[in-house]
UniProtKB/TrEMBL annotation:
Gene3D superfamilies: YheA/YmcA-like. InterPro entries: Bact_com_dev_regulator (IPR052767), Biofilm_formation_YmcA (IPR016783), Com_YlbF (IPR010368), YheA/YmcA-like_dom_sf (IPR023378). Coiled coil: none annotated. Signal peptide: none annotated. This is YlbF family regulator.
Amino acid sequence: MQIQEQHPVLDHAAALGQKLLSAEEIRRFRMAEEQIQRSRRVNELIEAIKRKQKELVHAKHYQKTAYIGKLEEELAALHEEMDNLPIVREYQQSQVEMNDLLQTLQKVVADAVSEKLDVETGGDVGQGGCGSGGPCGCG
């Protein structure tokens, strides 16, 4: 098997990936992620949540109804405390912004390709795509 030369489009995609790393949304996300990883309180809460989840699994297995309710309340309180930490809120917001940027980029590329090649974009492959007898006419 012969190794083919890398396609020029892949070179452009790699260059775009490098440019994306310097985008404000990506930079903010990476900084927030680092802060989350270094946060003692966040890590304590994560460990407490994991312990409570294991307890909950065991309680459900042994059908300890009253204990299940208590554990679910404790888990909800831990999640609420975690979600209300400013560092976690910043991380979640930066994640939303980064995802929006990446989805916009994906749409721009898909629209550009679709416009030039007159192909459909989006949707489920099994819904009207090849092999389903959909708009492409294959069956």
